Amino acid sequence: MQTLHFSNRTDNNKLHIPSLGVALVLLICLASPASSCTAQEKGSLLQFLAELSRDGGLAASWRNGTDCCKWDGITCDRDKTVTAVLLSSQGLKGHISPSLGILTRLQHLDLSHNSLSGGLPLELVWSSSITILDVSFNQLNGTLDELPSSTPVRPLQVLNISSNLLTGPFPSTTWKAMENLITLNASNNSFTGQIPSEFCNSSPSFTVLDLCFNQFSGRIPPGLGSCSKLRVLKAGRNNLSGTLPDELFNANSLECLSFPKNGLQGTLEVRMKESTAKNRRENNEDAEVTSFYSGSEQTLVMMRMPQGKGDENKLKFTDILKATNNFDKENVIGCGGYGLVYKAELTDGSILAIKKLNSEMCLMEREFSAEVDALSMAQHENLVPLWGYCIQGNSRFLVYSYMENGSLDDWLHNSYDDASSFLDWPTRLKIAQGASLGLSYIHDVCNPQIVHRDIKSSNILLDKEFKAYVADFGLARLILPNQTHVSTELAGTMGYIPPEYGQSWVATLRGDMYSFGVVLLELLTGMRPVPVLSTSKELVPWVLQMRSEGKQVEVLDPTLRGTGYEEQMLKVLEAACKCVNHNQFMRPTIMEVVSCLDSIDADLQM
């Protein structure tokens, strides 16, 4: 039997390439020479570390190794130079050191979803190398200073400063130096003044502008209509007045125009070019932001609408009430730490799933809306589609696709119908592959990366063809951080929680890999992670013990033995055991597991 080998790389030290094949990415990684950054780069990073009051465990990696190219969250190029610092969702607290601006080839800086405070160093904004700067979902405060008028053109393409505590007038002249800017997200702050009109004049490739949930006032500048490539323009929940300028509709590429909860007046003429509508129909693409229903007590936002769901792609909260029979318990199809899930059958016969979140746990409206908007951007064929959300008073609802075959947990552990015997090995391998691809997307493609925090068989949903979909990704971001009574739920489910979480409740990508390894063991054994009978061993230690005694075949589900697939199953078992390694640094990345499962599937097809 071929032995599977996984590299010993850390979570963040990997390529973020959404479209290349896994095999090609692995070849590139293997072909890269060993890296060793310069003393200046090492000093710059250690200065950043020194200004943190809570480092999320970085010190253990950064201070014990001389080669910073091998440190957690650091990526280097073939010239042994730091090109990326990726530290999203690491539990960091403190100030952002301007020393990171000394990294002369740093292209990607991601410090999102931490608890960083203080100002945003100007050295990072006017860096001569950074193209992607993401400090969203922190506690940064103060003003965003203007760049000097003499500043040469900067390479910055993506700037995400959303969901912070930034205040004061929004910069107006800074953007003249941003000729390469494509995306600017400054939503969910407290910026004041007027919306600048310099974006399009300075940057011909400007595509996305999100200024929602601020305190902007005045009129919408007609100059934004000169943005020939502008696709998304959002400035809801401000103090804007006047009318929408006709010039906005000169932007032929405009797909999303959103200004709710302002003081705008007049009528809005909705125009769509025939070629665009025709192209979307032929390619079966989903339209973004298809409807808004606003009232004094409730708001329903459908960010996307599944084909054929509802009348003319519009849905109101009253439709949801009717479809769930006022959220009757007979319509409950799932439950968990975040709330109940209801089956909602619409008048046209189509079905959706509505998750009603526990209201006392959720973020306030503006933070909740910002987080859901961010989550809705995660779209992959193996992720449960998030179609929209609803806010009614203190209640929060999420609208998902309905999955006909329920969850993997239902099929593996439904002893009444012996459902697990229905899942043959090819079907189980297909489920493992699909789930791994969904997890790979949120780990490797999403920016910022999403740590799932609660990978388990009940969060692997199955459609009528038994295609796997990862559910509940990112839900922890919708919950108030002070809800300590639900901390166990937010960090995982018993039997799936990695051992290192006993020392720190900071969720990590490596923690997700442990949980996914447990799911693989469930597929292989048909057993629950934690047995119902207290006299039985938990799944992970039992499998590891049996394997150490050379009894690995005996751990396989009895319904699968003797079917001719033992060799493939044992290869998956080897991968699963690497995922549940007690040493988190020895676990494979999800990209490596995807490649492994693809290789096993290829052998199966031969």
Automatic annotation (TrEMBL):
Designated name of the protein: non-specific serine/threonine protein kinase
Record keywords: ATP-binding, Cell membrane, Glycoprotein, Kinase, Leucine-rich repeat, Membrane, Nucleotide-binding, Receptor, Repeat, Serine/threonine-protein kinase, Signal, Transferase, Transmembrane, Transmembrane helix
EC number per UniProt: 2.7.11.1
A Pfam family: Pkinase
Protein's UniProt keywords contain Ligase: no
Catalytic activity reported: L-threonyl-[protein] + ATP = O-phospho-L-threonyl-[protein] + ADP + H(+); L-seryl-[protein] + ATP = O-phospho-L-seryl-[protein] + ADP + H(+)
Location relative to the cell: Cell membrane
UniProt keyword Hydrolase present: no
A Gene Ontology term for the protein's cellular component: plasma membrane
UniProt-annotated binding residues for ATP: 356
PROSITE patterns: PROTEIN_KINASE_ATP, PROTEIN_KINASE_DOM, PROTEIN_KINASE_ST
UniProt cross-references to InterPro entries, sorted A to Z: Kinase-like_dom_sf (IPR011009), Leu-rich_rpt (IPR001611), LRR_dom_sf (IPR032675), LRR_N_plant-typ (IPR013210), LRR_Rcpt-Like_S/T_Kinase (IPR051824), Prot_kinase_dom (IPR000719), Protein_kinase_ATP_BS (IPR017441), Ser/Thr_kinase_AS (IPR008271)
CDD domains tied to this protein: STKc_IRAK (cd14066)
Domain Protein kinase: 327-600
Signal peptide: 1-36
EC class of the enzyme, as a word: transferase
GO MF terms, alphabetically ordered: ATP binding; protein serine/threonine kinase activity
Topology class, membrane: Single-pass type I membrane protein
Family statement drawn from the similarity comment of this UniProt entry: Belongs to the protein kinase superfamily. Ser/Thr protein kinase family.
Predominant localisation class: membrane
